[in-house]
Amino acid sequence: MPAPRTSDAAPAATTGDVLVLVPVKAFAVAKERLADVLDPDERARLARELAAGVLRAAAPHAVAVVCDDEDVAAWARSLGASVSWQPGAGLNRAIGAAYVDAGAAGRRRVVVVHGDLAFPAPLSEFVTRSAGGPDDVVLVADRRRDGTNVLSVPTGHELRFRYGAGSFDAHRAEADGLGLSVRIHDDDHLAWDVDVPGDLTPPPELGPWPSSVPPRSAGA
């Protein structure tokens, strides 16, 4: 029998109708695809700093970190986020459970955000502007038009989260299949996540590199 799920996400009555969900894996095992250019300590520090930037950029909206690692949970609470504790669920099931919990707590909308966005400054405004009607879904793709960096969805639907390869098209098809209205939001900043070595060389127009871990162009 699976372990019971618990969550300490703040109730809607005190933090509004929208909840930002940020899934964060254990920092010690994060960013393994950067192993050719960053050592384990650098990868862990990069993952932590990027995730902290996402949490700060989401303010003043309520944020819950979706995780199954005690260190990540303690880190999230230290930054003022609540925790949706999802042990052993895997990414899609964990987000799905947190989504259901948010609806049960009275949230009318959930915004799922990758924790590795390098330039998340537009996030708060996006969360505000994407809070449309009960049938409106808004997606932000990564710059390869493959992944889903940000997904704003109303609660109360039988929505299956489809993170992984091709998630942008999969999420759009999922929303279409439920009869929801889908809007694509293009944003160069929100589109820049960090997964592979090439992601460590952003164009200068996006702004200064946000981490103490040097970008590839300077540190590789």
Describe this protein's structure.
With 220 residues, this protein is α/β, with parallel strands linked by helices. 31% of the residues lie in helices and 18% in strands. The chain has a single domain (16-200), classed as Alpha-Beta Complex (Spore Coat Polysaccharide Biosynthesis Protein SpsA, Chain A). It contains seven helices and eight strands, in the order βαβαβαβαβαββαβα. An eight-stranded mixed beta sheet has the order 1-4-3-2-5-7-6-8, with helices on both faces.
| Biggest sheet features | 8 strands, mixed
Strand order of the largest sheet: 1-4-3-2-5-7-6-8
Total beta strand runs: 8
Structural class: alpha/beta
Primary descriptors:
220 residues; alpha/beta; Spore Coat Polysaccharide Biosynthesis Protein SpsA, Chain A; 8-stranded mixed beta sheet; 31% helix
Walk me through the topology.
Elements: E1 6-7, H1 12-15, E2 18-23, H2 40-58, E3 62-67, H3 70-78, E4 82-85, H4 91-104, E5 109-113, H5 123-129, E6 136-141, E7 148-154, H6 167-177, E8 181-184, H7 216-219
Parallel strand pairs: 2-3, 2-5, 3-4, 6-8
Antiparallel strand pairs: 1-4, 5-7, 6-7
